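2.7 Reproducibility. Because tokenized structures are sensitive to small changes in the input, we list the exact sequence used for YbhG-like alpha-helical hairpin domain-containing protein, including any N-terminal residues retained from the expression construct. No trimming or masking was applied before prediction.
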Amino acid sequence: MRTAFSLLAAVVIAGCGAKDNGSLQGYAEGDYVRVAAPFAGNLVQLRVARGASVTPGAPLFALEQENEAAGRREAEDRVRQAEAQRDNLLKGVRPSEMEALKAQLAQAQSAAAFAVKEYVRAEDLVKKGFLSPQKLDEARTTRDSSAQRVRELDAQIVTAGLGGRADQVRAAESEVRAARASLDQADWRLRQKTVASTVNGVVTDTNFVQGEWVAAGAPIVAILPPENVKVRFFVPEPRLGAVKVGQAVELSCDGCSATIPAKVSFVAPQAEFTPPVIYSRDSRAKLVFLVEARPSKEDAVKLHPGQPVDVVLK
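Resulting structure tokens (single pass, no recycling of outputs):
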């Protein structure tokens, strides 16, 4: 298409360059939005055709997504697993385990109480000479051991109610965040296989048909937004000084009922055409510079890429 425009430009330059009324010749062109997917795959749905008007959010095409869907399911499972491990650390032991610890504590308390009574009884008997001091030492040891067992079980019950250690909980939270980030990535990859328009415009081309394999990044649909329509024309070197960005121009074309206002948006810094001769005052008049002008969005729909236009500088 650009080759055709270049040939058209050559014809324009080779013609007369400017009409008797001072108008300059040019042609309409567009900056196309070429829509692609970042991943490869078979084209399973092409939801637009050439000439269709689209708006932001309108579905354009879809590629196969079985692999991406499976990756998302796997990421969801990892999130659930990481959350379960974190919650398990926060909850502490199970209720049945806590009940077992409490039962053991009750037994230890009973044993400790009995050991205290046995020690008192042994102490009295030793004073009366019915028991040897060795038996009193044994009773004292049993009493102290039973008391320590009670303290040990008290500490175990407190610890069991606390859950995991702070560093373990932080590590588990990190695992949850990493799993959720992986799920976000999987979601993004899955969404890239179904592509919607981000602009208003007209579909000018579709490069693939349903069932074809599409390489990653290959444009599938081309859209021309009205604000991307522009007019390219060529200004002879002697008239270049009168042209500046923002300058108003008027466009006319075959079939246009009225002139179309536009503004200059670009002036080329170098000559578009350079004759193969040493510059002289006469040859400088053969130099032309590319200039671009853009009409309003409302007027841009009246022009079509490749259409010849006449431009009058204001």
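The longest strand covers residues 260-273.
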